[in-house]
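Dear support,

We are seeing what looks like truncated structure output for some complexes. This example has two components. We would appreciate it if you could run it in full and send us the complete token output so we can diff it against ours.
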Amino acid sequence: MHSTQPSPRHSPEVARRLRARARRTKILRRRVGALALILLAVMWGAVYGLGSLGATGRVTATATLADARTTSTAAASAGSTSHKHAAASKTSAAGATAHAAAVKSAAATTTTTATTTTASAATTTSAATTSEQTTTAAASTASSGGSTTTAVTTSQS
Amino acid sequence: MTVLATTGSHVFWITSRAAGIVALILTSASVGVGLSMSGRLVKGRGPDLRVTHEALAIAAIAAIALHALALLGDSYFHPGVADLLIPFVRDYKEPYMALGIIAGWGFILLGLSFYLRQRIGVKRWKVMHRFTALAWVLGVIHSLGEGSDAGRTWFLVITAIAVIPTLVLLCARLARPRARDAQVGLAGRA
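Here is the complete output from our reference environment:
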């Protein structure tokens, strides 16, 4: 026995509330979706900028004091482009990044972990991973406006 | 373009790790909202909380899927589909990888079971749904045990911000029935 009375659900007040709830739901879903995408972008940047890139792109090297000083001086004179390049090459020294090492020259006698993008660095990587006693030069080359910086490194494994 | 050029073959690896962290944050938020709903900690916003909980869970499932899919493109790790879907197939950082796979499956299946709750039975589904918290705990252990950034301060800070509030809510939720039982027990003795 179905009632012929109109359902209370069809009353204008209920319909208005349902529409308002549907609108709120849509907004909430969009916000959560946007939040997730923003989080992904921020975390991608965090991993890229702060995280390690694993064993494939790494070479363990020891920077000499003189070379680190040279790097530091040249990096300072090269300016922001060199700084960016060093940062982009994701070189790290004694737990800090290479650009930090270049600017601060603090990692002179410490072990340097370097990830490089140049072909010579790739040679360094393969040499360091396959050989026990590899001494290679030119782990990172930063150039800007005619000034060239070369960091000479001795790799260890 | 510069970023892509410098990251090169690491794009998939970085994407997977980023998606893993996002999944950790979103699962923590989703479980946290779910616990505050079940514990009736927030009053008067039930429908909104439910929608938020559902949206966070779906976003978390998407992040978990991306976390696994992106690994397929990584040239160094180079896993097979079975390595990513079946626990203990690949002997890499075990048992944390297996815990991650179990947690991922648990979260996905228990999360999507919401849409089958009428078929499963609402009461049975509610009991099942509680195990989502267990999947979340396994996911946290996986990220701390296997994560490439697990030792890094920034990662630990993010994890602490995401995990601790939910962990507190979970502990409160687990402690509550016991307290109620204890009260019932005392009343029965009196």
